[in-house]
Design brief:
Helices cover about 75% and strands about 0% of the residues. With about 110 residues, the chain is mostly helical. It is elongated.
Length: about 110
């Protein structure tokens, strides 16, 4: 391989590195936006987890017959809880919602 061929090879490798950096940079910016949404939008993901659980507590107290008749409602709420918690763990989010008078999010009220 002559010098010219060597330079072309190095240039091609450099192009691949720069291309992968720009893709990784874009992905990093998108990930940062997702983390920001989870931490801040509508008081954040931990607030969403808490209100989802609060909804199930409310239905258990105020409409137990509905939950008995339509048992899939608990499954829907449990599915959301599972998804929200998986998202928290995947993103490594910190709970900025705690620190109020009671523990947030509240414990899972399901069986």
């Amino acid at each position: 391989m002559n010098d010219y061929e060597g330079l072309l090879k190095e240039y091609g490798e450099l192009q691949e590195i720069v291309t992968s950096m720009s893709v990784d940079g874009r992905n990093y910016r998108h990930l940062q936006r997702v983390i920001q949404v989870c931490e801040a939008s509508s008081r954040g993901i931990f607030k969403r987890i808490d209100e989802n659980r609060e909804l199930l507590e409310f239905l258990q107290k105020e409409a137990p017959a509905l939950l008995e008749r339509c048992s899939w409602i608990t499954g829907w709420i449990a599915g959301n809880d599972h998804f929200f918690n998986d998202l928290v763990h995947a993103l490594g989010s910190e709970n900025t919602f705690s620190g109020l008078q009671r523990m947030h999010p509240r414990p899972w009220p399901g069986k």
